[in-house]
Amino acid sequence: MNSKLRRDKVVFALIVLGFMAVLVRAFYVQILQSSFLQEEGSKRQVRTIDIPAPRGTVYDRHGDLLALSTPMASVWVDAKVMYNYQQSYVRFLQLMGLQESELRNLAQRNRHKRLSFIRQIQDAKLVEAVESLELPGIYLKKVEMALTPKDAGAVIAISSDSPSVWVDAEQMLGYQQAYFKLATLLKIPSNRIADKVKAFSKRRFVYLKRSIEPQLAKQIEDLNLYGVYIQDEYKRYYPAGEISAHLLGFTNIDDRGQEGLELAYEDWLKGKPGQKQVIKDRAGRVIDFVKDVVPAKSGSDITLSLDKNIQFFAYRALKSVMVEHQAKSASSVVLDAKTGEILAMVSLPGYNPNDRAQLHGRAIKNRVVSDLIEPGSTVKPFIVAKALDAGVIEVDEKIDTHPGSIRVQGYRITDTHNNGVLTPVEIIQKSSNVGASKIALKLTTEQEWQLWKDVGFNRDSGLYLPGEASGYLKPVSQWQELDQVSASFGYGFSVNLLNLAHGYLMFANQGKIMPLSLFKLDQAPQKQQVVKAEAADAVLSMMEKVVARGGTAPKAQISGYRVAGKTGTVHKTKQGGYEQNQYLSVFAGIVPVSDPDMVMVTVVDEPGRGIYYGGSVAAPVFKEVMQQALRLRNVPHDQTLDSL
Question: Which of 24, 180, 211, 640 is deepest in the core (most CB within 10 A)?
Fold first, then answer.
């Protein structure tokens, strides 16, 4: 009796000690180690992923969209995981001696609740081989049961003496026919997907396709394929397409600026990605959202000085002139005469920034700033203005250009014919090289060189446009008489088209010039006086004669408006000299003369069909664009409609 009591006490004591051990362990785990274990658990489940941020939107001066970011997605794979699953699945079929279609039929026929019976395995090595695959949805079980197939066939007796193979058909969908499913939705051949996954089977991150629509991404995500992931991102879209391509530029597949404003103002436009915490399952799929860690911040918006409508009309006119004259290229720039804002900038041939196949080659060049040209006769008004400003000539001075040529340091400078005695206005109207040379020789080399420097012909625009080429002007210390004469009719130095347009602001602002702007301004910037107002105004009036009958550009006339301008027909340079039959056709114009509103300069490279003069090729472009721009800007007429 006593021994039995003692035994009961021992058993009771052991039970109490066991409970106490459990309580101590529970206290240790639940209280003392709670934070540590939660943190360790989170490390295995909670992940921090990036949230993409859109770039800033680009607007024209009227608030119309020029560039915006649209939500897109990319499909990427963990190639190592996906390849291993595919290889293991193929191996499983081989071990079972089944084709994939046979496996699917068995799974459908032998379904028992969630799992489907495939077969029993007697071979221990085969059991080990199946276990080593570690494929989701494939199980080895020892069960004793009688299974009635779905087709009411013979009852299958399953013995617990050996393992039987069971599959979860739904779980296997995560890798069954994965290549085929992706190929169908992404419209990529399945063998190409398979080859890519195999080629990068050691990598954990491989893109399958970029910039797909969110709806398609959702379809792929719903497949729940192992090792296949969706990454949210943004794609840049340009509503105007080719029309504004050279100025705006484009972004790469990762939404980073590569050309134009997109590149120049990358730091301003780019967004700042955020971060969020999510819970992922064993296969790496996001199953729940936890919280935003850092919110994504959109890039800053930009409002340009560009007028989308004027840009369109400039594009259309250049497209037309290129076709009509079979030209190699054509470019135009339109400036607000009062503020220096760029209203339009077009370069052809062009490209569509929305089509990645076109984002290469010479077509992406913004020729307005990248191509250097000798401006030719378009600079003769500058020489006359400087001479008037310096007091070395008078407005009505008689200058003898007989016999239509002049020799300077052994070189013969000629006009197209003998113009005899000319006044400054006639020199500009008839575009006399001899007359411009004789006026230039009345200035010192320092005076003329300083003129070109003051109007900005030896520097860039200050707009930080990618690919911009700065004009070249030989140092004044190296100038000789021939340099001084050649420069007076636009040879011996180089500018880009934007430089030339910038210089013409001087005639629209009574001898003053201001910085250029790509952004919409609230007020006009400070101006720098280059020549006296009287000299600039006098030359502006002289340039009206260029557009009048008897001038070189009557095709630039616009009904109801006084137009001032100057033509240039420039021989293209070659190594060691000039091409005799290849020309640049140039026209620079200002409208209206009474109160200048816009300056436009156009150059057409190598016009064909025997017509190459600036007044015949480039001047009509000015007329076509300015007619529309004056209407759009509601600029009042400054002469009667029937006065031409």
Answer: 211
